[in-house]
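User: Okay, second chain of the day. Same drill as before: sequence in, structure tokens out.
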Amino acid sequence: MKKKIAVIYGGYSSEFKISQKSAGLLFESIDNELYEPYMVEVSKKSWHVHSKGGIFPIDKNKFTFLINEQLVAFDLALITIHGTPGEDGKLQAYFDMIELPYINSSAFASSLTFNKWACNSFLRAFGVDTAKAILIRRGETPNPIEIADELGFPCFVKPNDGGSSFGISKVKTLMEMPEAIAKAFSEGDEVVVEAFLSGREITCGLYSDNDGVHALPLTEIITHNDYFDYEAKYEGKSNEVTPAEISEEWTKNIQDLSKSVFRRLGLKGFARIDYMVSEDGTPSLIEVNTNPGMSPQSIVPQMIEKNGQTLTDVLNSIFLVG
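Assistant: Same drill. Structure tokens below.
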């Protein structure tokens, strides 16, 4: 009997539509000869399954649903929510409690990586280079002058637990700082202000299966805008060069570092790790994404194709672990 796979998308953040696109490609790429996939939408209003032209509510006690008076239970979950509650570990913790296997990173690893400040601080303790940063919590009164003295200009102001560049600003003057902080707080309760890193933006996609952790070909992101913002990511305002046109030495160094970070954090399934690489080839980690974008326009599917693989083959390999 085919295993039933729940492809879970949506979420409670601004990234709902992006998650929907990722789920669409993953759903289409699942091998129907081996698995029976279902699209499961999670929103603040409801949790439900789209199947056979109908919508069927999820019983949250066991994550099951009824169709034609028949109870359907899933064998495996594939979470492709960008943001809460799928990227921050909440769904993973729920699935742990009801004993539903999933291919994503654990609740702890997801929670840690979703908190940019905590994740980078954790990795810094193991010698991973990251940007100098300041954390601001809601209710605190930040002093722009002190921030400027500490980090300099330009700097980046971003939600500590957001994605897809929602709420991010590149700040060049003191006058811009208050508005940028307010914008970031509109997406979450904590804000990170990071020092500017110059260099080339390189990202490494990875996945894990029974053979270990695999690093995909690197991608260099060359944005047409001031930085890799929403337009650059999703509206074609960037060039994404895969494989990145860098030396074999730099490539191996970044891939090896990425695999080390993947293992250090205890990640599982897919991940993407972003870096800024200086002129001498030193990579500074920007952030770790445990639920990277998987739409047709996203970087990881491009990496898989350039690696001579299909997303279907990679999913088959990952599902064997789950």
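Residues 227-235 have pLDDT under 50 and may be disordered.

User: Thanks, on to the next one.
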